[in-house]
Amino acid sequence: MLPSPYNASRELTLGIIGGGQLAKMLAQAAYRLGLRVAILEHGADSPAGRMTQLEFPEGWNSPETLAAFIRASDLITLENEFVGPEVLDYIAQYRPVYPTPETVRRVRDKLTQKHTIAAVGIPVPSFAGVETPEEVLAFAQQHGFPLVLKTRTFGYDGYGNRTLATADQLPHAWAELRQRLPAGGLLVERFVPLQKELAVIVARNRHGEVAVYPCVETVQEDHVCRIVYAPAPIPERLRRQAQELAVACVEAIEGVGVFGIELFLDVDGQLFFNELAPRPHNSGHYTIEACYTSQFENAIRAVCNLPLGSPEMFVPAAVMVNLLGVRSGSGIPDSVLPALRVGKAWIHLYGKRESRLRRKMGHVTAVGNSLEEAYRTAWQAAEGIIW
Ligand code: ADP
Fold first, then answer.
1. pTM for this prediction
2. Contact 22, 79 (CB under 8 A)
3. For ligand 1, atom 17: residue with the closest CA
4. Which of 181, 225, 274, 283 for a ligand 1 pocket mutation test, highest count of atoms within 8 Å of Cβ?
5. What H or E segment, with its residue span, contains residue 221?
6. What residue ranges define each of the domains in the chain, with the CATH number in brackets?
7. Between β-strands 161-164 and 147-151, what pairing exists: parallel, antiparallel or unpaired?
8. How far is the CA of 252 from the centre of ligand 1 (A)?
9. Does 248 score more than 90 pLDDT?
């Protein structure tokens, strides 16, 4: 029987694999719901690890630490998809794990993920798994340039991607991605001429009950998400279509938990699936302040098999701005005072020890009667954090 936080003799402990900002915001929601939190991470003093006495900083490669983390937890979820499915299989022998190892297997490798999603009829840009540069050229003959070459695993914030305008760029891009990930094949796909990038968060519990958040627009800077506009400034018909696609994606992987689905809107107004994350997603941070139930709270409700909360926004508009590292060095800003003086913005600093160029160090959310109003407030606060 799946443990419930509300019929046990003691507080239920939610084990989270990963200790970054997503785990920190999950833990904040878990504490509010009366749960305890255990954190498994490679390294001490992570943003979430330092919030709990149940910190397991030797990571999942240490059998003793993994066993202690399992003992400390009543059920287990994850904040990133970098943990191997074999580790999840091991954990699942002892504790419920959501999303399940099967779901994580379907999405961890971007090639398997795209096959799974395409198989249920969701539009996906033409793609192929490739083992050699010659196979990329064969794909290009069929689909033309530009195209996008990607690592199948461990890609994030564009680190595993190269866009190729011509065949000349292939040897260099291939070598760079190989250096990043020496083993395993790569993925090649058609370059989609983008009108906008969209995202939808979906929570789904074990009964199959689903909560779908509004479709948002994400704006990337150098492949890293910089701004999120909620709701996306596109026709209502497209927003609804995006939500329907997102739910179909989560059902295709039999997902339990919370999922971030990234979509492309091309210049002709067509929607395509890009990728899916089996965890809370950067495009859903605005839900903390702008929706009745945040993505983090619904992630917890979903994995505990509790009724889901309403994903609806209770304000007309919200904007989130990511605070990206501008230097290498301390993760503590020099001043936050000008941002605090803005007054109507919510400031989240993740407490990462070290900053790096483009690293996500925090975010700011503001709401308003219009996207313009929310944007002005959020941007003013983001600029008021001095690094
Ligand atoms: P990551 O896992 O690093 O986030 P994505 O596959 O989401 O990688 O790609 C990162 C960004 O690169 C996307 O948000 C988009 O801006 C761009 N991109 C990726 N694939 C394509 C594509 N097929 N066509 C056009 N742009 C793309």
1. 0.96
2. yes
3. 223
4. 274
5. strand 216-221
6. 13-97 (3.40.50.20), 126-190 (3.30.1490.20), 194-383 (3.30.470.20)
7. antiparallel
8. 21
9. yes
133-143 helix and 170-180 helix, angle to the nearest 10 degrees: 130
pLDDT value at 2 more than 80: no
183: CB partners within 8 A, 6+ apart: none
Which residues have C-beta atoms less than 6 Å from ligand 1?
Answer: 125, 148, 150, 155-161, 189-192, 194, 197, 220, 223, 262, 274-275
Residue 119: its pLDDT value, please?
Answer: 97
97-154 pLDDT per residue, tens: 999 999 999 999 999 999 999 999 999 999 999 999 999 999 999 999 999 999 998 8
User: Mean pLDDT, to the nearest integer, of 242-251?
Assistant: 98
**Cα–Cα distance, 7 to 73 (Å, whole number):** 16
CA distances from 385 to 157, 309, 321, 367 (A): 22, 33, 12, 18
